[in-house]
Design a protein that fits this description.
By secondary structure, this protein is an alpha/beta fold. It has helices at residues 5-22, 45-57, 78-82, 165-177, 200-214, 236-248, 308-311, 358-376, 425-441, and strands spanning 37-41, 62-66, 71-73, 92-94, 104-106, 110-114, 119-122, 126-129, 132-135, 140-141, 159-160, 184-189, 221-226, 251-254, 257-263, 268-273, 290-294, 297-299, 304-305, 343-345, 389-396, 399-405. A 5-stranded parallel β-sheet has the order 5-2-1-9-20, covered by helices on one side. The protein has a 5-stranded parallel β-sheet with strand order 11-18-12-13-14. A hairpin with a 2-residue loop joins β21 and β22 (399-405). α1 (5-22) crosses α9 (425-441) and α2 runs parallel beside α8 (358-376).
Length: 448
């Protein structure tokens, strides 16, 4: 039997994946006899992974996932779709095929949380009661916070966003069309809010630049990255490396600039110049000074926040640095909501001092599940999340800068003896050929 190159690389990455997972594999508890009704809000990566762990840990499980979407998106693949590495079809699966056996799936939208009375309201099914609640609904993207932009009109005026499935497809088409007229101004932006996969705006910038070099047309394009922040990334070891790459490849950076408006007909982006970086939404007043920038292609990042039902609930953070965005209040170690101890929170909706990534969810889920089971048994939660997250930033075709860190920006490299500030081919193999099968066949099944 002969193996295709893709199958060979996918199989070969198991050893590399073992390095990534070996020190973090969860040791299953003996099945608990505890009985309770558990409701999970959200059937994305966090919700399904959590359900898988709980269904294994509980002998008498009564678990319901509330999730309206029929199709599950492998969202880390959006960037690779835009970069032409994955086809769009490769990152879609029916949710029905991913739901753990025995878990009930309620296809509905959550409209309101009522934690004082242990129930929530849904759009079609009305009141749903619970004994324990898991909040894992992800976050919402606010395209309308940028004047002239909407999710429905992505691609118009050559303004694109890879945080959307169709947006990623259109972005790929736009990048490949650059060879038809090999000159122009390319503008890329991040956003001011906490966001999922904070490295994605940097990835698509570098992948576009790499494409232009491969096509031999790089010199005809002016590329500029506009950032709300005053650095490309923290911890500094990764931000400094990215800055060096941007400098070497002639990508200009404008710090403390926030995209507030796009005129898609005139192909002009307008930025608000900031005195200092902030996570707060700053309503624009009539006399605000705006910086207008012409573009031929624009890639922008929409502001993000918790879903409306979360922001308007008593579970949202109202004080401190993370108060912007309505993120769910949660203990950073145990992942338990401090005001309602029968609620655990994980994934993008969680108000945690670390980046929102799938890698973070993979570490959070077994901890959150173990602590939830402990509470069901009347015990104190003992498992502690250290803030680990990872962001594999594609710097060019065949190379990835693997950014791994925890709370307080502490470096947490899986392979400690490797220089973390060096992009490597081994991480490309993991990113392109390993992570997706590990996601579907390991993480979503509660196996890693």
């Amino acid at each position: 039997m002969t193996l295709s190159r893709r199958k060979f690389l996918t199989a070969g990455v198991a050893g590399l994946g073992g390095l990534v997972l070996g020190g973090r594999a969860y040791q299953y508890l003996s099945a608990s006899e505890a009985k309770a009704k558990v409701v999970i809000v959200g059937g994305g990566a966090a919700g399904i992974t959590m359900a898988a762990y709980l269904s294994d840990m509980l002998r008498h499980d009564d678990i319901t996932i509330i999730e309206p979407q029929e199709i599950h998106h492998y969202q880390p693949g959006y960037t690779l779709v835009a970069g032409g590495v994955f086809t769009p079809e490769e990152i879609l699966k029916p949710n029905q095929d991913l739901m753990p056996s025995g878990v009930k799936w309620l296809k509905d939208f959550v409209e309101e949380l009522v934690p004082d009375q242990n129930y929530l309201m849904t759009r079609a099914n009305g009141k749903v009661s619970y004994d324990f609640l898991v909040l894992a609904p992800g976050c919402q993207m606010n395209f309308d916070r940028i004047e002239g932009i909407s999710r429905e009109t992505l691609g118009e005026g050559n303004a694109h966003c890879i945080y959307d499935y169709q947006g990623a497809i259109k972005c790929h088409e736009a990048i490949t069309k650059l060879r038809e007229k090999p000159e122009g101004k390319l503008v890329f932006t991040d956003t001011y809010s906490k966001l999922k996969c904070g490295g994605a705006p940097k990835k698509i910038t570098l992948m576009t630049e790499d494409y232009l070099r491969d096509e031999g047309i790089r010199e005809g394009f002016e590329m500029t990255y506009y950032s709300n922040s005053n650095n490309l990334m923290t911890p500094a070891v990764y931000g400094d490396r990215l800055q060096t790459l941007y400098d070497e490849r002639g990508v200009g950076v404008q710090y403390q600039h926030r995209l507030v408006k796009v005129d898609t007909q005139a192909k002009k982006a307008f930025f608000q110049r900031l005195d200092e970086p902030t996570l707060a939404h700053l309503p624009r007043v009539a006399d605000s000074e705006l910086v207008g920038v012409d573009y031929d292609m624009l890639h922008f990042t929409p502001p993000m926040e918790a879903p409306d039902f979360m922001r308007h609930s008593p579970l949202a953070i109202t004080e401190g640095k993370l108060r912007h965005g309505g993120w769910a209040k949660v203990d950073e170690g145990t992942l338990i909501q401090p005001d309602y101890p029968n609620i655990v929170v994980l994934g993008d909706v969680a108000g945690l001092g670390t980046s929102k990534t799938g890698a973070a969810i993979r570490i959070q889920a077994p901890i959150a599940a173990a602590n939830l089971v402990a509470m069901m048994e009347g015990k104190e939660p003992e498992q502690i999340y250290n803030g680990y997250t990872a962001c594999p930033i594609v710097t060019e075709h065949g190379k990835v800068l693997m950014c791994e860190f925890g709370y307080d920006k502490e470096l947490m490299p899986t392979v400690p003896f490797l220089d973390p500030a060096v992009e490597r081919g081994m991480w490309w193999i993991l990113k392109v050929h390993g992570l997706k099968p590990m996601y579907y066949h390991g993480m979503l099944k509660g196996l890693m």
